Amino acid sequence: MAILQLWRNGGVGHKIASVKAIQRIIQTQTNSGATSDPRVSLRLVSSANDRADCSLGNLQLARSQEPNLSLCRPNHPFLKIALLEEEASKLLEESITSLFTTTNADLVSALTTSLTALIKVRNQFTKLVVTALTNWAPNALSGSGYPQIKSVEKVIKLSLSHLLK
Question: How many structural domains compose the chain?
């Protein structure tokens, strides 16, 4: 809760510091969509003696290393999945809105980097984030210097090219 207060009401330094935490909140409060069984994923485990044996006996269940909403039981008494998804959606919307409205070049760069990292693990946001990054214009940064604007444009260009890989 303190992170959200800093994000919404803090100064530019506080907002930049909270960008990564906001990314992790969005990541945690959304489904990964990686498996049909949200608690486990299949992984092939091969023995050192016989790497060619790929029978069903070598498949083991392994917990996903990355936190996501699919790890929460649908009927959990305290964690309401719909509310968590709604909060994550609002935070993503706030992040993208801040991308267009902030007057600080460093915050735009931090948001761009964070959103790029987010869509690497949450493919369902790819269209939204790529559209936002391609439509970004330095209108809100008009008071900033030319080198700062060019730096932000370079970060966005590198992020978009990174996403193509």
Answer: 1
Is the residue at 49 inside a domain?
no
Asked if residue 45 belongs to a domain, the reply is: no
136 lies in some domain: yes
Residue 43 located in a structural domain = no
End-to-end Cα distance, the chain: 35
Q: Which distant-in-sequence residues (6+ apart) come within 8 Å of 136 by Cβ?
A: 99, 100, 108, 156
Q: What is the CB neighbour count within 10 angstroms for residue 34? A: 13
Interatomic CA distance for residues 139 and 141, integer angstroms: 5
pLDDT in tens, 64-108: 567 888 888 888 889 899 999 999 999 999 999 999 999 999 999
